[in-house]
Sequence to fold (343 residues):
Amino acid sequence: MSDISLSNGGGRGGSADWRATGQSQGASHSYPLLVRDHGLATALKLLVETLPYALARWGVLLAFAAACALWAVVAVGGAVWLGTHVASVFGYCWLLGVLLLGGWIWGAILRYTLHMIACGHVAVLTELMTRGSIGNGTEGQFAYGRRIVMDRFGEVAVLFGLNALIRAVLRAFHNALDTLGDWLPAPGMKAIVGLLNTILSAATRYLDKVVLSYDLARGGDDPRRNIQDGLVYYCQNAKPILATSVWMVIVERILSILLCLVLLVPAGVVTVWLPEAVREYGAMFTVFTAALLAVTVRAAFIQPLFLICMMIRFHALIENQPINSTWVGYLDGLTDKFRQIGR
Fold:
């Protein structure tokens, strides 16, 4: 982690000196911003305003969880039947094939579905942050989100591919950071740099949607250029964004743990009510159900809350900010994925 220093406002690497030299192209965007407070109270208000998206995400997660449970029953049941009536090797092959191949297929479909829901959600949130209302007031949130995303990218496959490129650029940038040690001046604190890196990896999962929000807010007829500029703006403001995201991830983990503990209480009550003969097996079921609900509630409601915080923080930081051409050159040389976004 020695390729780039955020404290200088730019990068360094190879034979070129990429440190910021004051080069700027002027502000590359102009859009209104009505929400600048990135606190949890403001984020919760926006989450409630866009509750249909959170409920849709929760419904999809629950449906896929139920489908996966059924898929597991088919895998185990088929393996037992084949092992008993044919040969054990056929049972093992069935089990591995169904779990591995089937699990990959289900995972890909789930990621794709949740990604498209999240993009629609980002479109609606961006409109609320920049204009205060959705469209002309005659469209529902789902219709508006889908229309805006499709108008910008034409087809969902294009957006899905761009999302992968954005994440690749972000990974390359974060792998080059040497800033974490500078944030922790006390010698004894250096030991937790690895832990902070893990936290930052979790925090940056929101940033691809933040860059999408920038494109939607900026508009224009070149979304790929907008996404490139959004990545450059993130690099220019990486230190305050990542510093904020660390605390957000910590709070998210705390809320997730509290959610698990809260859901274990009714699970325990139900277990106590069960007959003695089935209580042990019933406890496994109630704990599994509580864990399943905790995971889906976290993904549907808690994580979007922190996505909203990151979106507000990003838009407030880059408001009227010139874009530094040094960062354009740095990212262009750091990874070819940055260039691929503009093609």
